[in-house]
Amino acid sequence: MQQIVGIAVKRRRTLLAGVVLAGTMAFAPTLFAADTSPIKVGWISSLTGPLSSAALAENQGVKFAIDEINKAGGINGRPLELLTRDTGGDPTKAVNFANQLVHSDKVAFIIGPVNSGESLATIPIVAKAGVPNIVIAAVDELTNPVKYPRAFRVINTSEQWIRTANHYALDVLKHRKVAIIGDTTGYGTDSAKKAAKLLEAAGAKPVYSVLVDPNKTSLSDEMEKARAAGADVVMPWSAATGLLARILNTRGDMQWDVPVVGHPSLMALPIRNLLNKPTYWENTYSAGYVSTTYGADGKLPERTQKLMDAIRPSLGGKIEFTFWWVALGYDAVKVIEHAVKKAGSTDPKAIQAALESTRDLKGVYGDYGWGPQDRNGFPDAGMVVNKANTFKEGSFERAPQ
Amino acid sequence: MLTVLVTGLAVGALYAAAALAYNVMYSTSKVLSLTTGHIFMLSGVFGAFFIGELGLPMPVGFVGAIAIGTLFGVVTEFVAIRRVLARSDEHLWLLSTLAVATIVQQSVGLWWGTEPKPFPRLIPQDFSAGIWDQKYWLPIATIAVLVVGLELFQRRTLLGKIFLAVSEDAFAARARGVSVNRVRALSYALAGILGAVAGFAAGQLTFAYFALGLTLTLNGFIALAVGGLGSNLGAVVGGLALGLLTASATYFFGGEYQQTIAVGLLMLLLLVKPEGLFGAKRTRHV
Q1: Which residues pair with A180 in a beta bridge?
Q2: Do A215 and B209 touch (CB under 8 A)?
Q3: Is B225 part of any domain?
Q4: pLDDT given at position A5
Q5: Which of A270, B55, B255, B285 is deepest in the core (most CB within 10 A)?
Q6: B209/A216 touch (CB, cutoff 8 Å), yes or no
């Protein structure tokens, strides 16, 4: 009787093992097949609202890179799925979208937001969720390997802009009596203070420094005070094109032939239309990029030209905005492609390790490299000073050396 | 220092015009419409559009800008005021006028762009005129004319007197056969004309900028509160005082303290004289 029971148990075990084996065989193709699910990329942008100019151009680059990668079969066979969220430049909306993207949509990456004010609000949220964040805003406080270990910046820092402009004013133009004009926004205030500090460290304490409302209708007083203080170079730190145009108009109207060196917005196209006379844009220089600067032969760097030629049809044949924004958007996606390929997956830990060990990644906007303690990927060598009034196809001439 | 005075006066004149527009609308509706600054913004943007982009002659552009301002005034009254006042005594107009202002600003931002654009030169003049440049004296002179015109209209014309009657007591005016709704709509149209003329004259100072409305709505209200609600003289004095204060605060202390100092001083004034400089003292019958 015991023997019969033993045989029955043995049979049952064999049967169970058979079922497990059959089940495993049946599901084997699923278990061992390559993952072809889409890689979700959250793109927090400000496509409308007062800060939309840069975002709209960057969006062209982001979309173009996504299409290019997907047409080539995706990353390791996985297509990219772009989830665009328009914040309208509102940090509150940016926070809501960041929460939605990381918690509900479960994106593998976040690009953005575009503006520093919004980024300061979203960075901790994305960091807490452990999602890799490609940072495209310039304020220095946005990266920190301890607080935000998976936030990797592709754009330059705001300090790089300031250092580049300071170097040009002090070492190339040989002017040391600097007047700083910043605006009263968080960015303007921070930049003006930083610029003054760096100049002082270089032994050129500003002779005049002021913060003004970005919508101030007249800069006559400030420019008169700067001249009275003996300034031989004016350095504006503001992204407000209206304010910058008013500085240039005032300088021109008072017939003061002093160079203006500063923020990249000095070469933004909207300024051209706001000037009283086109000549008021002369003797104006701004921090810019090697990637969007014409060489002595009148040609752009090869990678920039290639992207420009490829993307031009989708921009209606004409490039009416600063092209480095497009290149930055394009590179943000290409950095994700590089990270996933190098990591072999979208596992956040592996992505972090992959980017931390990335050196000299060739991009269009710049060549990038990060380290275990370095989250700012854009090199100083990628920066130059441009002549502000030389806009041609979104690129510029180099300032005289 | 002279430029501080001139720029302060020019900007102050614009604030005064905004305060006047508030007053005109308030007189018949007892509503402080948050669309006030947007009339100026629309006039600046459409003036620049008509003359700068469509290439229309300046007088045509001027008339076009006024037409837009007037239309906006009437639409505001119809959409955000009339139905709200008819159905509720609560301050729902705050929400409805804010909604209209937001919609208009966002729409202009989408269509016109969010960067400031140039406003055409209205009178041939070299740019080296300094404080005598038209961008300063044109708004000051225009607003002076508007103030006098408004006073004459309210004191010397029948329609102006009807406005005052509705302002004093809408029920009594209605009892005497005045169509209060129609008078209110007319007052919004008048505020539209006033704001459009001032916005056009100050276009070179402000540029054609979609976000101008909010600034003028706020500063026009401060000017009104200082000068005294309902008083045209108060609106002018309040506006000029605010303009001069902000310009001086920037000159002496820097832009970061501009609003704080200016608004702080005005708050002090209101603590001492809550009805404003020229406002009527409120008495409560017991």
Answers
A1: A209, A235
A2: yes
A3: no
A4: 47
A5: B255
A6: no
Q: Quick: pLDDT tens for B81-129.
A: 998 888 776 788 889 999 999 999 989 988 888 788 889 999 988 887 7
| Residue of B117, B130, B211 lying closest to A50 (CB–CB) | B211
Beta-carbon separation of B255 and A213 below 8 A: yes
Contacts of A321 in chain B (CB under 8 A): none
Instruction: Report the pLDDT averaged over residues A258-269.
Output: 94
- B250 Cβ contact list (under 8 Å, min separation 6): A212, A213, A216, A221, B257, B258
Structure tokens given for B33 = 């419409």
Distance, in Å, from the CA atom of A264 to the CA atom of A287, rounded to the nearest integer, reads 5
CB neighbour burial string for A314-334, b if at least 16 within 10 angstroms, e if fewer: ebeeebebbbbbbbbbbbbbb
Choose the closest CB to B7 out of A50, A52, A218: A218
| Crossing angle between the packed helical segments A186-201 and A158-167, to the nearest 10 degrees | 40
pLDDT tens digits, B220-229: 999 999 888 8
All structural domains of chain A, each given as residue ranges with its CATH number in brackets, are 39-158+304-381 (3.40.50.2300), 159-295+386-397 (3.40.50.2300)
pLDDT digits (tens, 9 = 90+) for B127-170: 877 788 899 999 999 999 999 999 999 889 999 899 888 888 88
Q: What is the CA radius of gyration of chain A?
A: 26
Asked if B255 lies within 8 A of A50 by C-beta distance, the reply is: no
Measure CB to CB from residue B255 to each of A53, A212, A241 and give the nearest one.
A212
Which ipTM score applies to this complex? 0.75
Q: Which two tokens stand for residue A258?
A: 């002093």
Residue B52 belongs to a domain: yes
Q: Which residue range(s) make up the domain with B108?
A: 13-123+131-217
- Residues from chain A contacting residue B212 (CB–CB below 8 Å): 215
For residue A74, name the pLDDT band (cuts at 50, 70, 90): very high
